[in-house]
Amino acid sequence: MSTTWTTDELTRIQGADELQIAARGDDGALRDPVTIWVVRDGDDLFVRSFRGSGGRWFRAASASHAGHVQAGGVDKDVTFSEENDRGVNERVDAAYRAKYGRYDAAYVDPMVGPEARATTLRLVPN
């Protein structure tokens, strides 16, 4: 079990606009994947729920802490780890603005707002 991303995986996922994410349900089966945004901070990858804690995929990910992601040709099982560190969240905010700033503020602003920020998850590869 690997707990770090390879440089190639980080580069490929960061280069992808979107990530497919599927949380494991109570029965251990993967739920249907959802398309979301993903950002990189150093050697870590992070996701947030646009809908805040009410997002269905986020509730499932928070309950199981296990799932699967696909982006940029990378196909990987992951553990979801809550991220509450203020400094990390500020860097993740900046990463969302840098990567997705070309999109309408109606999409970007909620991703760096308090509701989405409270759902920041680190993707830890298995």
Summarize the structure.
The chain is an alpha+beta fold. The chain is 35% helix and 28% strand. The chain has five helices and seven strands, in the order H-E-E-E-E-H-E-E-H-H-H-E.
What does this protein look like?
- InterPro entries: UCP028498.
- This is DUF2255 family protein.
- This protein is α+β, with helices and mostly antiparallel strands and 126 residues long.
- It has a single domain (7-125), classed as Electron Transport, Fmn-binding Protein, Chain A (Pnp Oxidase, Chain A, Roll).
- It contains five helices and seven strands, in the order αββββαββαααβ.
- The chain has helices at residues 7-15, 56-64, 86-100, 105-111, 114-117; strands at 19-23, 34-36, 39-41, 44-47, 66-71, 74-82, 121-125.
- The N and C termini lie close together (5 Å).
- The mean pLDDT is 96.
Strand content: 25-35%
Q: How many distinct beta strands? A: 7
How many helix segments?
A: 5
Give the low-confidence spans. none
Mean pLDDT over the full residue set: 96
Instruction: Assign the CATH class.
Output: Mainly Beta
Structural class: alpha+beta
Strand arrangement across the biggest beta sheet: 2-1-5-6-7-4-3
- Helix/strand order, N-terminal first: HEEEEHEEHHHE
Query: Judging from the principal axes of the Cα atoms, what is the shape?
Result: globular
Summarize the biggest pleated sheet: 7 strands, antiparallel
Under CATH, the homologous superfamily reads Electron Transport, Fmn-binding Protein, Chain A
Look up the CATH topology: Pnp Oxidase, Chain A
Distance between the termini: 5 Å
Q: What would you say the CATH architecture is?
A: Roll
InterPro entries: UCP028498
Organism: Nonomuraea longicatena
Protein name: DUF2255 family protein
